[in-house]
Each structure stands twice: as C-alpha cells, then as structure tokens.
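Before the break, one more example. Copy the sequence into your notebook; we will annotate it together after we see the structure.
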Amino acid sequence: MNDIGKWLLGFSAYEKIYKLKSKLDNKQVEIVNQFSPIMHSEYQPWMCMQECYPYFINENDRFNETLVVNDLVLLNKIQDKFINTINCSDRVLKSNTYFYWQIETIDKDYIDKFFCETQQVLEIIYKTHFLFEKYILLIINLIYPLKRTIAAKMTGAGLSTHFFRGGVFLIPPEKSEFFEEEYAINIVHELAHQVYFLYQNADPIFKTESNLLVYSVIKKVERPIALSFHALVATYFMYIYSYYFFKNKNFKSNNKKIFIINKNNDLKRNLEIGLNVFKNIEFTELGELILQEMNSALSLTMNKEVSRENF
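Here is what the structure looks like once it is written out:
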C-alpha cells in the first residue's frame, strides 16, 4: 500500500513539512537579525510578531530547555510582552485571531501540575504512533499553560495563532476517567493547526474569496473559509490519531475503549460532513492535494485497510 499521507500526515508529508518549516524558520530568523544587535540562529515563536521584537530581540535563542514551559519568569514575560501586545494589535484584531484567555503566571502548583500532566500525555501520544512524536518535536516549539476560566470547557481548550507559530497554549481537561484521552486529542488538534499554518505561509490554498463563509465542523456555525478549513484539518488529525490509538492501545478499562470508539465515530462523521462541505470549493493545486489526502484516508480507514505501516 502506498503512503497515503503525502501532504498533511504521513512519511512523505513529514519530509515536505520539514523542508517547508526549515525554509520559513530561516527566513524569519533573517528578518529578525536585520533589527537585532545580536545574531540569532534558532527560530522562536515570538519572531512572527514584529510588535514583540523590542521585548525579545536581545534574548538568547535557547528560550526553554523543555517543550512544556514551567518557568515563571518566561511565563510572565510571554504574558506581559506577547499576550498583552497581541491583544492590542490592530493587525491581529482584524484577522479575527486574538487571545481571550491569559497565561497562568501565579499559581505555581497549577503550573507544576500542568507540566507533569502534559509531559505524561505527550508520552502517550508518542507511543500511539512514532510519527506523531516526530511531528510534535519538529513543529511545536513551546507549550504554555493558560489560566482555567469560567469560559473553559470541561474537555479543555487550546489556542494557536499565526502570530506565534510554534507556540501552543493549553487548558487541560477537567479530571475524569478519560482525562488522558481527551487531553491527547486536544494536543493533536493544536498540532494540526501548526502544520496547516506552514502551508498557509506558502500557498493561498483557495481560489475563492477569503471572506466566503463556510460551515465549520468544530464550531458548528458558518465561519470564514480559512478558519473552517483549519477546523477540517484539525478534525482529520484527531480522527487519524483516535483511529491509531484504538488499534494500538491496551485499554485499562472497557469504559475507555467505548470512549475512544465513540470519539472516533464522532470525528469520522464530522470529517465526512466537512469534506462534503468543501467538495465544491475551488482550491489551488496544493489545496486540492490536501483535500484529496483527507478523502483518501477517510475511505481507507472506513474500509479497514489502514495499518500501522500505511501511515
């Protein structure tokens, strides 16, 4: 069986994404070095937001030693200098992308718990399929804890933005029997956004008007076409992850097995709906290839033809 994941999620896709990310990262570092008194050699998420340059440009490249951030000094700086800047930016507000939650910078117990739980769940993701580990370590630079607010759902929440590419902001789910399963799917959701950001930087994806409203399978309302396609790509990633998790997991309880079966079925239905919504949209060549991959993967998994080697 051929590698079906040539653009989004697969061995061939990984090679393309690796090259594209390297190119975009190097370009961003070159831009930053035009303004910087010191030479930077490694890409960091703050480099995508020029309004933040004065606050970070004198920083050393090594921002954090681990993927998950629990350093109070760094968390406070990201909150004060990035989140507050992005909330006041006309450029960001016009894009309909803004942060309505805040980074946790005070509750050290919560931050330490976030660090441990997130690390543990990342290990679960890595064990589900080694390609997810390769993707996460390549694409996600840093993971930050968001404050748990009244607005946060029981199942947790995540945020990603073009203006901080590589940075992921998370609220873990409430503790339950299915905490690990829910949290892993949330992280994969954000991974999908980060992958798609790379392609958006390289291609328009659509030939149609950018303000066209299209049904979003996640928000369940019509949204601008780019946001709704983001939702479809995220659904695809979560569906494939839940599919492999079910195939390769020794379940600790029958309830967990039923939970994953139901989650996978829900994601499959949403993926089918989303693909049907976008079937009459006019895409660029790259956009069409991405759509074809999702259609092919759905067909193969529905026919039970995908194995661990076909990823």
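The chain has one domain: 11-310. Residues 11-310 form one domain. Try to locate both features in your own notes.
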